[in-house]
Amino acid sequence: APWIIPTPTTPLPSATPTALPGAGLTLWVGEEVPEGLQGQLKLPAGAQQVNTAELANLRIGVGAGGGRTARWIYAVTAAFPTITDEVSLDDVKSAWEGGKPKVFGGSPLLMSASTRAAFAMLWGEPAPAGVKVLAEGALQAEVWRLKQSWAIIPFEAINPRWKVLRVDGASPLDKGFD
């Protein structure tokens, strides 16, 4: 009996390459972007991250320009069992400038490198004695170890071991916070 070989009714895919979804996309991320946000960025295949804003056609950072904006919220925090509930913005700025704020024994503000970079864009460079930079994952342990210390952290890093302090009566945990 003769053999019957079926022939395909649909054409086979061509060997012509197609462009990757991210081809031509170059992304720059400013050092002030919170580490938690940086860790969530997923580039499509073919896209690449670049080290300078001028080489990028997509930029994420403070004052990076463009038509879209986002608001990053930070919290002034301490170890949860801290008695202090509120600080003034003047105390925070005094610590930033290397002064001796009336709270936390005049200790420096603890923060990550990205938080420092974001606030430096707003307030200028901090005094060396005013800020202590640590890895974001090490901040909480250091605040608890030192007892009389405080930190500025991105809102998304808040967890039950942090006490969020009010600043001039306002807290990012308040309903309707602006």
Report what the structure shows.
- 19% of the residues lie in helices and 19% in strands.
- Strand 6, helix 3 (113-123) and strand 7 form a beta-alpha-beta unit.
- The chain has helices at 35-40, 89-96, 113-123, 139-146, and strands at residues 26-29, 48-49, 58-60, 74-79, 86-87, 109-111, 131-133, 150-154, 162-164, 166-167.
- The strands form three sheets. The protein has a five-stranded mixed beta sheet. It has a three-stranded parallel beta sheet with strand order 2-1-3, with no helix packed on it. It has a two-stranded parallel sheet with strand order 5-10.
- It starts with 25 loop residues before the first strand and ends in an 11-residue tail after the last strand.
- With 178 residues, it is α/β, with parallel strands linked by helices.
Largest sheet: 5 strands, mixed
Q: Average the pLDDT over all residues and give the rounded result.
A: 84
* N- to C-terminal distance: 83 Å
Strand order of the largest sheet: 7-6-8-4-9
Relative strand content: 15-25%
Uncertain stretches: none
Classify the oligomer. single chain
Percent helix, as a range, is 10-25%
Structural class: alpha/beta
